Amino acid sequence: MALTTLTAISPVDGRYRRATESLAPFFSEFGLIHYRVRIEIEYFIALCELPLPQLAQFDTALFGKLRSIYTEFSETDALRIKEIEKTTNHDVKAVEYFIKEKLKDLDIEQYLEFIHFGLTSQDVNNTAIPLSLKEAMEAVISPAFEEVIHKLTERSESWKDVALLARTHGQPASPTRLGKEILVFIERIKQQQALLTAIPHAAKFGGATGNFNAHWVAYPAFNWPEFGNTFVDNLGLTRSKYTTQIEHYDHLAALLDTLKRLNTILIDFSRDVWTYVSMNYFKQKIKAGEVGSSAMPHKVNPIDFENAEGNFGVANALYEHLSAKLPISRLQRDLTDSTVLRNLGMPLAHTLIALKSLLRGIDKLELNQAAIDADLEANWAVVAEAIQTVLRRESYPQPYEALKALTRKNEAITEKTIAEFIETLDVSEAIKAELRAISPFNYLGVLE
Questions:
Q1: Is the distance from CB of 370 to CB of 282 less than 8 angstroms?
Q2: Is 168 helix (H, G, I), strand (E, B) or coil?
């Protein structure tokens, strides 16, 4: 069976391919090969610029042609590398041989052995992968989170004056503003984004076991750690100073854990909106031809928020495994990190699917002011907090207990009930007027 979006085992490359294809240049097999080629070429150029004695006469005018090997990298090139890998049975070695073929085409065969000079495969992988992740975050994932923030900010502004019955423990509580409830999520997201941007994209670049052994034995006069630092810094990454054969992945784990927290915040948001839809606070724009249920024609389900919650959950399960597993390796290295890292794009893809679902869902929301107002009107008991607090201010005896006795009667508390209670209070007419002015629609507190 040929691989298509219909036959793909993973929905990331099947059902949701259109939502995730922007991540393919970074996390597909093609993407990984492409980034490996880029690292190998830039490393060779860095050796020429050092220069190593044998590369001192290399024609720097050829740097552009060298870089074109990765800037013009094609699927045909990737397939050639996969063909070489059938012989080498080693993916990074296949990249090395591919580049050597390209250098032969440039008639610079005398420099071939300085491709991959002194490196281990993990110098390439543990630089290529954090670079691909960094650039995927910048190009795709972070903008998607920003778009969600933008949409939420628009809604928080539109709904800033909408009085809303709050619920603590599922029970009616002091009223709030709908706009402010959206601001809660905006603030939480922004705080985690600040942590996310502070986490370095760390790379390992130091030879077979992290000590530049091969570099040093060939050229002991050079400061290889300094060279490694400069090379990695020029890629926009941070070099881990002390490593084994592999990057220790602690910073990567921190990044994945932060992404997990961002997703968790948006799961919380999705569930809140789902609940508001079920309470009829929100209606959803109906798209012609859409079906909510195969059996119940009246239904308009909050499917976008459900889809978002599900995909955020899948992403978080993968983030959890990656962040827990990757920092652990036996002695100087085992191979478990390699196979696990190949799944790095999966949680990001599920996160992207969820973010796009969330954006669709937010766009469909329509405020049902009548339902919100009806709920406030039906819950005058929530002003009891306000009344007893004013009475406390006036040193009225046992105000909490008086309101407790009133509101815990097994009967509805209405505007009339509250008004009659106020008239029984032994306070001045000015205080009564102050209390009469309080309602579920204006007992909203203050922000900022």
A1: no
A2: strand
Amino acid at 179: G
90 is catalytic: no
On whether the 379-436 domain is CATH 3.90.1150.10, my answer is: no
Residue of 68, 278, 293, 428 marked active site:
293
Across the chain, what does the average pLDDT equal?
94
Query: Of these residues, 169, 294, 298, 395, which one is catalytic?
Result: 169
| Measured CA angle at 126 (ends 206, 192), to 5 deg | 120
| Three-state secondary structure call for residue 175 | strand
Contact 252, 130 (CB under 8 A): yes
CATH code at 17-117: 1.10.275.10
Tokens of 348: 């990001």
Question: What is the chain's percent helix, strand, coil content, to nearest 5?
Answer: 65, 5, 30
Positions of CATH 1.10.40.30 in the chain? 379-436
Q: What is the pTM of this model?
A: 0.94
- Reply yes or no on whether 22 is catalytic: no
What is the topology classification, in CATH, of domain 122-166+177-201+245-282+300-366? Fumarase C; Chain A, domain 2 (1.20.200)
DSSP E strands: which ranges in 252-383?
A: 282-284, 365-367
pLDDT digits 0-9 by tens, 361-398 = 999 999 999 999 999 999 999 999 999 999 999 999 99
